[in-house]
Write a structure and sequence with these properties.
The structure holds two protein chains of two kinds. By secondary structure, chain A is α+β, with helices and mostly antiparallel strands. Chain A contains four helices and three strands, in the order H-E-H-H-E-E-H. Chain A has a three-stranded antiparallel beta sheet. Classes of the chains: A alpha+beta, B mainly alpha. Chain A binds chain B through residues 3-7, 9-12, 14-15, 18-19, 21-30, 32-34, 36-41, 44-45, 48, 55, 72, 78, 81-82, 85, 87, 90-91, 93-94, and chain B through 1-3, 6-7, 9-11, 15, 18-23, 25-26, 28-29, 31-32, 35-36, 38-40, 42-43, 106-113, 229-231.
Chain lengths: 98, 231
């Protein structure tokens, strides 16, 4: 608990996690919409999503609407917990009560 | 819940460009909060516009109804025209609400939107119930004069309750404030009596919504100052 999770502890990934955490627990968001909210390039977002996918922090669901492939993204339960732990640790580091 | 490989990696060791590095904890905390505020501003930025649309609709629509008898004998708006203006105003406001609501939710899929579905159906169910109760009252001798007081107040009362419910379900304080305000307006208006209660709705409701729109816009502008760490 006293070490900041290195997977989340990078600007881009923290922003991704923070954005996904604003969604309701059962909601997911498409890749382009997430990209728009983050103002990141597609390549950059993909790279960081892969890093978040490795420890299963992010659920990635690929589906189709007609013939168009759509990728939905959401925090997994593990990811949401990791993000909350990260915030708690950050607050502790900053001397606040978690 | 640390990752198995978490302990070894230094947060900055893999940095090839800025965004992969970590800042000082205080800055990371600020970044996190800024990002969430920016997202909220983008996702809810349409709400003040909807409020403004409803403000305009109430102001113009209810003023039209007021002008049927309110300024007589100097001026009188024909009843058909007044109702036409009122309905057109509501239709425009509903259209803007749906369009902006759908647009803001684009790209977001709800897993199980039970509350949202029940809430949506309650709008239609409640409106039909009010129409039925009013119809029964008319059949049992409710005068058109009293119907003039009954319908708008009961509908506005219902809208107020729905705003409060929305505020409770989606934890939106502005919605609760607006809902409470509508309950007050709905309760006070019948005491004012026809036709002045329509002017009251136009001013208290219309200007109220416009005020909420301005306050909401300022609130969102104040929180969307985020601009850093761009990709």
């Amino acid at each position: 608990m006293d070490e900041l999770d290195p997977v989340i502890h990078a600007q881009a990934r923290l922003r991704i996690m923070a954005t996904l955490a604003t969604l309701e627990a059962d909601d997911s968001i498409t890749f382009p919409r997430l990209q728009e909210l983050l103002e990141m390039t597609a390549g950059n977002l993909s790279t960081h999503l892969r890093k978040l996918e490795e420890p299963a922090y992010v659920d990635i669901t690929k589906t189709h609407r007609g013939r168009t492939p759509i990728t939905y993204l959401a925090l997994s339960k593990k990811g949401r917990r990791a993000f909350e732990d990260y915030m708690d640790t950050l607050r502790t580091v900053l001397g606040e009560q978690p | 819940m640390n990752t198995p490989d978490g302990a070894a990696a230094s947060p900055t060791s893999d940095s090839s460009h800025d965004e992969t590095t970590a800042l000082a904890p205080a800055e990371m905390f600020a970044l996190l909060n800024d990002q969430q505020r920016a997202v909220t501003a983008k996702m809810t930025g349409f709400v003040p516009t909807i409020m403004a649309a409803w403000g305009g609709a109430w102001l113009i629509g209810f003023t039209a109804l007021f002008l049927i008898d309110g300024a007589a004998p100097a001026f009188s708006l024909p009843i058909g025209l007044a109702i036409g203006i009122f309905v057109a105003c509501l239709a425009v406001a509903i259209g803007i609400s749906i369009w902006l609501g759908v647009r803001s939710g684009r790209g977001v899929k709800s897993g199980s939107d039970f509350s949202g579905t029940v809430y949506g159906v309650t709008w239609s169910g409640g409106s039909l119930a009010i129409a039925a109760i009013g119809g029964a009252l008319l059949q049992n001798g409710l005068s058109p004069e009293l119907a003039n007081l009954f319908y708008p107040s009961v509908f506005i009362f219902f809208v107020g309750i729905m705003y409060l419910a929305a505020g409770a379900i989606w934890r939106a304080v502005p919605s609760i404030i607006a809902g409470a305000w509508l309950l007050v307006i709905a309760s006070v208006a019948p005491y004012i009596g026809y036709p002045w209660h329509y002017l009251f709705f136009a001013l208290a409701g219309g200007l109220g919504f416009l005020l909420f729109a301005i306050l909401g816009r300022n609130l969102l502008n104040g929180t969307s100052a985020y601009r850093s760490a761009g990709a």
